[in-house]
Amino acid sequence: MAEACGAAPVVVALDGPAASGKSTVGLAVARELGFAFVETGKLYRALAWKALREGVAPDDGPALAALFREVVVEYRLADAGPQILVDGEDVTAELAAAEVAEAASALSAFPEVREVLLPLQRRLARPPGVVVEGRDIGTVVFPEAPFKFFLEASLAERARRRAGDFAALGQDVTPAEVEEDLARRDGRDLSREAAPLRRAEDAVVVDTTDLTFEEVVRAIVERVRAGTGSNRE
């Protein structure tokens, strides 16, 4: 396993579009390496939950900035999964709702929203290491991370996976509906001004479309242990 230098944590950055497998893969990789795991998407969903509760539109940048100026978001790491608190209230169970996910995608386009969460994301890195998944981890949050991976998959495959997630939650959403939503979110993530979705130049691309879950995890873990988790020369 890769070792931290001194007390500095090893950071494994895991980026990619929605439903590319970052969360499930990231958790498994973290467990294999003995690292903590951070899903940054849950932080944006926490802010989205707050906005929806307060009746603030997720596309109203100034109103969002005013709302979030005093909001306290906590991300507590635990073996059973993260616990997310907003102003002291545990909202973890609320973050899987489709409307929260949609609102999170919309409000994440605003620089003032991303600025609220950037320091928190960086503070979550702790020894011996952390696997952090998101859309701008290797480019903005941890640009100096020694290990960077960009997960991708076909739109159809991502839609199939996400529809399965919704079905497990008892939400009746067809793959066609999910595909339309993902395409819209991809366009928004790729074109936003603040920290758009893009692959870091030194990131290793892992196309998960035709790979099993175990194959993806093994490919990443082996690269980290071998010290070859980036394309730096």
Account of the 3D structure:
It is a single chain. This protein is α/β, with parallel strands linked by helices and 233 residues long. It has one domain: 3-Layer(aba) Sandwich (Rossmann fold), CATH 3.40.50.300. The protein is 46% helix and 15% strand. It is built from nine helices and eight strands. The chain has helices at 22-33, 40-54, 61-68, 98-107, 111-123, 137-141, 155-168, 175-191, 213-226; strands at 10-15, 36-39, 73-76, 83-86, 89-90, 129-134, 147-152, 204-207. A five-stranded parallel sheet has the order 2-6-1-7-8. A three-stranded antiparallel sheet has the order 3-4-5, with helices on one face. β3 (73-76) and β4 form a beta hairpin. α1 crosses α9. It starts with 9 loop residues before the first strand and ends in a 7-residue tail after the last helix. 39% of the residues are buried. Mean pLDDT is 89; it is low at 1-6.
The major β-sheet equals: 5 strands, parallel
Span of the ends, CA to CA: 21 Å
Which structural class do you get from the secondary structure elements? alpha/beta
CA-based shape: globular
The ordered H/E elements are: EHEHHEEEHHEHEHHEH
**Count of individual domains:** 1
CATH topology tier name = Rossmann fold
Uncertain stretches: 1-6
The helix content, as a percent range, equals 40-55%
What is the highest CATH level, the class?
Alpha Beta
Going across the biggest sheet, name each strand in turn.
2-6-1-7-8
Using only CA atoms, what is the Rg? 17 Å
CATH homologous superfamily (4th level) name: P-loop containing nucleotide triphosphate hydrolases
Mean pLDDT: 89
